[in-house]
Every structure is written in C-alpha cells, then in structure tokens.
Amino acid sequence: MAVPTIQAVRGMNDVLPAETPLWQALEDAARAVFAQYGYVELRVPVVEATALFVRGIGDATDIVEKEMYSFEDRLNGESLTLRPEATAGIVRAAIEHNLTYERPQRVWTAGPMFRHERPQKGRYRQFHQFDAEALGFAGPDVDAEQIALLSRLWNKLGLPGMRLEINSIGDPDERKAYRAALVAHFERHARALDDDARRRLRTNPLRILDSKNAALREVIAAAPRLLDSLEGESSQHFDALRLALADYGIAYTVNARLVRGLDYYNRTVFEWISDRLGAQGTVAGGGRYDGLFEQLGGKPTPACGFAIGIERVVLLLREAGRTSVDVPDAFVVHVGDAATKFALATAERLRDAGLAIIVNANGGSFKTQMKKADASGARWALIFGDDEAVAQRVALKPLRFPGEQIALPPDEVAAHLQTRPS
Ligand code: HAM
C-alpha cells in the first residue's frame, strides 16, 4: 500500500522555482531603496518570548488573542512564540543592545511572520514582510520620509493602482478620553452591535471601528471621530505630516476610521492600499509608536515604522502579468522628423540620468506605438509629435497609474520620472 503523502501546513506556502526570480528581484529593489534612505539591515530571531508580543502588540488585539503560534520550551516551560510581526522584536533588540544610545537608527529587516488567520487570497499563516523602523526620531519629517520611501519603491516596481490613507490616532491621553466617548456612543446603540462588537466594547472599543459587518456601518459612521478631538502637539504633528507629504508631491486621503490592528501606535498611522487585491488590499502599513520602548522596559524613545506584505506585492506584480521587476522607466513614442530628433536627444539625456528608456523602432502610428509602450511594461510613455517639437516640451503619460498626461521641458523629465508614482 502506498504511504500517504505529507502536505505543507495549511496557509504556509512553498515559493517554487518559477516564482523565486520575482521574489529575488523584489528583495533587491527593496534593499536598494532602503539603502537610498540610510536604512541598514538588522536581523532578529523568528522566535521570541510570548510576553514580548503580549506586552508589545497588546493583549486585546486579534493577533495576541487568537493568532499567535505559541508553544512551551521543553526544558524550562517558558512560553515562546513564532513572531507575528517584527517591530516588537526590533525594539527588544534595540533596548537589549542599547542601539539608540549614541544616535537614532534607521533599520530594516525581512523574513517570515506567523499568524493563525483564516487563509485566503493575500492572507496566509506564514507570510513575509519587509519591515523598516526609524528608532529615536520624533518626526513628523521621518513619518513623511517613510511614506515617500514606499512611494519610491512602488514607482520602482511599477506597481499598479496604489493609494495612500493616513490618520492620526493622537496620544494616549487623547485616546483615553476618546475611548470613553466612543464607549458611551456604542452603549447608546448597544442593540445595533453584534457579539464581537459587544465584546470589544469592553476590551478594545477602537477596533469596533474596523468591523467589516455591514449591519454596523451606520452606527460606526455616526460615532465621534478621534481626529476631530486632537489638540496641541499631536494635531500639529499631523498638520506637519500633511505639509511634508505635499512637499514630496504624494497624494493621500485622510481616513479618520483608520486605526490599525496593533496597540502600540500613537499619532501617525498609514496604509498603502491596492484596489486590485480584493479584501486583502493593504500592501503596507505602519505608523508611530512613541511609547513602545518604555512599555518594553526601555528608555523613552520615539519611533516610527512600517511593514510591507511581500506576498501581496508579488500577487500584484503577477496579476499585472509581470515576471520581472526590471521594467523600463519610459517608452518613447515619436512621429515626424523633428519630433524624432527631439525624442532621440531627450532619450539620451534621460539615460545619462540613469533611467532605462526604450525608444520605439520601426515607425508606426501613435496608436500602434502606444500599444507597444503598454506591452513593454514601461511606467510612462513619453510622447513626441509635431506640437511637442515646436514647443520643445515632452508629453508624459502614466501607463500604470491613474493620472493625467502632462507636458514638461526636457530637463525636468528625469526628476519627474524618478520620484512620481504617477
Ligand atoms: P500589519 O498591518 O499587521 O503591520 O502588517 C503589515 C503588512 O503585512 C500588511 O499590510 C500586509 O501586507 C502584510 N500581512 C499582514 N498579515 C498578513 C497575512 N496573514 N498574510 C499575508 N500578508 C500579511 C505590522 O505587522 C507592523 N509590525 C508594521 C509596523 C512596523 N508598524 C510599525 N513598524
């Protein structure tokens, strides 16, 4: 009789040889962008004391309540846990090795995380993150910088359809006052709540705002907003973050209901979301956690960080038909003699700036060339016709992101291609 085969554990996936080149290319791209912003790698263990996550992430969170892979050390009975995320471990390491003693540190790490969730597309029990943490920075400049770093990475990967949501959840005192107002609101509407919300009313009322139950939509929409009650420093912090994002040219929406699933956050929280992944659309999320060092026994140390879900990025790339992350920055479309001359000179200047540019060969109408531009995977089409030649301006059309076509003088094109996601 044949011996039954053994399968991988549910929700824990093999990355097969056909897929590893995409993972590696993605890892290279992330490493390069982290280095550009001064982040250095820090590696922490996959197993930590359970108490680290209970204290760090919060005992009323979904992760700690029901998703941790915990087990007893056979020798001394100590409870250990496969890390569900990296931030708590990094802060533990920073405290243990006094990493921020002399100066603040920008660090990143990557690897597997474990959460006992119900597996579905984009949600697994073993998944992988890139995680970056700025330790010892009070912000808000560093908050904005991290968001800009991610924008640059999406841009580098040509990742389609990414949008940014931000919010501020204030400081602990403000949250305490808000929590009381929120509990009063939900108690007034107790009959409209489901069992989960009723339970959370006592343990973690802010998480009710995250409920996916459509029946709760109205009572949630009518709830007071924490963002409206912020004052003083945390309100100034949020205003400064918004100004900094505007300086970076990064578009965002303020989502006053964004609370995130971990308890260590204060002030800034943000998520980069793709609408192409269904229910699991959050590709990266993060925020500020100024109280976590103290909560874990360290000295007060302000900090901010984020993590990217690698599987979700890979899904987006694969669904866009991509087998590699090395796409050209732009595809040059040109029709007419004067336009072609202008196009070739501009393409050379862009290559001097380090950009990868494909120039259409073998002629063709605008329409045919645009089709080739789309098929090339390039992030932008640079369009040169008679009008552009006369005006000496280049028309830039985003191919992977929603956005209007714009016209720029040739010496402004490289900077635009390098920094703008769309
Ligand atoms: P998180 O929002 O729990 O944050 O996870 C970050 C990202 O990891 C999510 O946006 C998602 O892309 C991915 N992810 C989470 N759970 C799963 C899963 N079950 N399957 C696949 N992908 C998943 C954190 O983990 C924080 N430590 C981020 C952070 C760093 N905040 C400050 N510093």
What are its keywords?
422 residues, alpha+beta, BirA Bifunctional Protein, domain 2, Rossmann fold, 2 domains, eight-stranded mixed beta sheet, five-stranded mixed beta sheet, 16 strands, 20% strand, binds histidyl-adenosine monophosphate
Ligands, ions, cofactors: histidyl-adenosine monophosphate
N- and C-termini, Cα separation: 60 Å
Q: Determine the CATH superfamily of the largest domain.
A: Bira Bifunctional Protein, Domain 2
Helicity level: 25-40%
Unreliably modeled segments: none
Strand content: 15-25%
**Rough shape?**
globular
Strand order, largest beta sheet: 1-5-6-11-10-9-7-8
- CATH C-level class of the largest domain is Alpha Beta
Strand element count: 16
Biggest β-sheet, characterized?
Answer: 8 strands, mixed
For the residues shown, what is the average pLDDT?
Answer: 92
Number of helices: 15
Query: CATH topology of the largest domain, anyone?
Result: BirA Bifunctional Protein, domain 2
Give me the CATH architecture of the largest domain, please: 2-Layer Sandwich
